[in-house]
Every structure is written in C-alpha cells, then in structure tokens.
User: Which sequence fits this backbone?
C-alpha cells in the first residue's frame, strides 16, 4: 500500500481511494519535473537557497528571494532558453543569483553550479528504472512550468523513452495551474482526465492545476505536513513522500 490511499492491485492496476468517494483506477500519470522528478518535494528555489546559505553564511536572508528570482529571470530571458542543457541552465541561475547578492566570483559560481548540477543530474538519472517500470504499465507524460527546454532536459537525462510527451509551459503559452497546459498532455495520453493523475510537489501549481483540468492530484510532500485546517487538503487525492513510492514492484 502506498501512503495516501494508493495501491497496486494484484492485476497490475493503480487504484486511488478517498474516504467517502468511490475507488478510481489511474490509467495514466503526469509528472512535474523540477521539485518532483529531480527531487522529492524541494523545488529549485529551495535547493538553491540552501546551497547559497551554506556558501554565504552571512548572507542577508531578506535578499535571498530577490536573488533567486533574478536567477529565474536570467534563464527565462535567455536568447537560447529553449535550447539550454542542464549545465548551462544552472550556470545562468547561479551567476545571476550571485550578482544580485554582490557575491559573484568565478570559483564560487563554478562550485555552486557544479554541486547543483550533479545533484539534479544524478537524481533524474536514478529515476529511469522506476519510470520504465511505470511506462510498461501505463502511458506517462511530463507537464512542467519551464523556459522551453523541458524536452531536452528529459532527453539528456535518458528518460525520453519513458514519456509520450513533454509539455513545457513556455512552448504552449500556458502555465500551471492553468488547466490549458494539461490539455496537450491529455491528448497525447489518450486517457480521460478523470483517470489521469498529476504527480507534483506544488499544491498551488500541480494539485490545483490538475483538479482544474479534471485530473486526480498526487502530492509529493517530501515528508512535509499540511495543516489539518488547510482547505487545500480536499484537493489532494493522495499524498506520497517520494516518487519512488509509486514503484509497482517495490516491497511493501
């Protein structure tokens, strides 16, 4: 049994059950990329922030959000955003962050970028066996808010064959939680939305967007708790701490 009322049946079907609702069979899965496939519940801003605090122990905490935003903008405004590989993308983030913090040095930028890049690359690559097992049972797709290079990131990580399609917000002109970003993925999967589940770490983007598109929502919590009084709890169909908990052949 997977935490959050998900379970694989003996006949190889993934079921989702909620109190007071009928059991629903999941026939396809959508995955978020950053914060989900490359980490269980921690987005890029959180991960970059942790590294910057370690690298710059005296950094002004109030200045960090603006620096992280500067990194996002640098990538989105890049002339070659859609063609960026992971290494180039991370380097742009880090340089803009350090410049915003008036802490830019080439050795520091290289050190931070290498650490972030290697962690991200290794985690994405480590998902391959799991995703291959899932793809052998149901169609999969990626739906990501990105700068247009989502397909390249997936392909470079060796995961391209696992997904029917990769939908990047900058390519389709819609960003989660807008339901429109989900429609191309649903069309490629060929499965009714009520039998499709979105797997993501952001309640405000992945969960709310999935429900707006008529899909089920699986929240990757990373071990975080949601306040019992939070009204968004009703939008979550199932909660898992790690994407690995979706493994159909794991010992449970």
Assistant:
């Amino acid at each position: 049994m997977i935490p959050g009322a998900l379970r694989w049946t003996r006949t190889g079907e993934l079921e989702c059950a909620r109190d007071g609702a009928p059991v629903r069979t999941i026939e396809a899965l959508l995955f978020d990329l950053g914060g989900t496939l490359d980490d269980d519940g921690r987005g890029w801003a959180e991960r970059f922030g942790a590294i910057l605090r370690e690298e710059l122990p005296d950094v002004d905490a109030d200045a960090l959000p603006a620096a992280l935003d500067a990194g996002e903008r640098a990538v989105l405004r890049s002339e070659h955003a859609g063609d960026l590989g992971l290494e180039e993308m991370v380097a742009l983030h880090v340089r803009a962050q350090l410049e915003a913090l008036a802490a830019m040095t080439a050795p520091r930028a290289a050190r931070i970028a290498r650490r972030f890049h290697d962690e991200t690359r290794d985690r994405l690559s480590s998902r391959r066996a799991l995703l291959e097992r899932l793809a052998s049972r149901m169609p999969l797709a990626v739906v990501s808010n990105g700068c247009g290079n989502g397909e390249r990131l997936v392909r470079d990580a060796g995961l391209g064959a696992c997904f029917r399609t990769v939908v990047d917000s900058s390519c389709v002109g819609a960003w989660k939680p807008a339901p429109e970003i989900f429609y191309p993925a649903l069309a490629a999967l060929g499965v009714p939305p009520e039998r499709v589940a979105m797997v993501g770490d952001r309640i405000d983007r992945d969960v709310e967007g999935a429900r707006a598109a008529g899909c089920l929502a699986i929240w990757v919590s990373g071990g975080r708790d949601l306040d019992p009084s939070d009204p968004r709890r009703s939008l979550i169909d199932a909660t898992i701490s790690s994407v690995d908990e979706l493994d159909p052949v794991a010992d449970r």
In short: The radius of gyration is 18 Å. The first helix runs from residue 33 to 37. The chain has a mean pLDDT of 94.
